[in-house]
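Write out this protein's structure.
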Amino acid sequence: MPFVESVNVGRTVDVPWGQLKRTAIDKRPVAGPVPVHELGVGDDEIADLKHHGGPDQAVYAYAREDLDAWQQTLGRELRAGLFGENLTTQGIDLNAARAGERWRIGGTLLELSGVRIPCSVFQGFVDEPHWVKRFTLEGRPGAYFRVLEPGPVEAGDAIEVVETRSHDVTVDLLFRALTTERHLIPLLAEEPRLDSFVARRLGARSNNTAT
């Protein structure tokens, strides 16, 4: 049974990277039940509210298996939360998960709404050369979820996929469509539960096609 390895939260700190010069990307595991609500996980903070957070990006999950793959590539240990994820998962292939599917974890119900697009702050925090390009080409982005039912989540909670979707808009396809393979963007219209970031891309694509 897939489960949550850790629940991770972070506080906003000053940093030398990015335009804002502040970030809460450094998430650390916390013990015990943590309330998950429509805007996030416990007292987790988000510094750049213009580009991150909100109901469509309330929870960010990253798979332990993908962290392990990066460990092999980078030759360094990658603890849970290092990629800024709120939930470090085990036993479920996040890259094959479908947009719009729903997960029951602990006392909460989540809906897969989008993917993480790497930025300069992420690169600065991980401190690896050409990180944005490498992360993009690797194609292990992790997934964003919106919260349909708030409730507590803690390490060890089982992950149950309670609703699947019939399309092929997986996390992998969604990420490629938004980064390296823009011709795939029209396929995303199959899933109405995607976040507003994707909706804007679909709108722009439609406008360009019309003109």
